[in-house]
Design a protein that fits this description.
Largest sheet: none
Helix content: over 70%
Structural class: mainly alpha
Number of helices: 7
Number of strands: 0
Strand content: under 5%
Distance between the termini: 38 Å
Shape: elongated
Order of helices and strands: HHHHHHH
Length: about 110
Amino acid sequence: MNIGKQIMEFRKKSNLSQADLATKTGISQVMVGKYERGDAIPSIEVAKKIADTFEISLDALLGEGQNVNFDKKIMDRIIALQSLDENTQSILFNLIDTYIQNFKAKQAFGA
């Protein structure tokens, strides 16, 4: 999928008009339309503004890369976890693992 279609998809998911997206990013509505139609490709700076507006990574906006399925909030938390000391990380990972195991058990047993 090209970046224009991705922009349109995320814009619609966010219930934004082209004018709304233009206002939030500081680009013109005409350019938003050109990006979505594939008549123009946003610069990296503009693509970053668009991704930030949707709270997604540039990878997600491009529809590529290993981080495509993670929203920006999840990625920010993962990055923050990396800066914590090893003991704190271990505690948090154990807590996360427990919640994941409980969720999977509920799904498996239909609870």
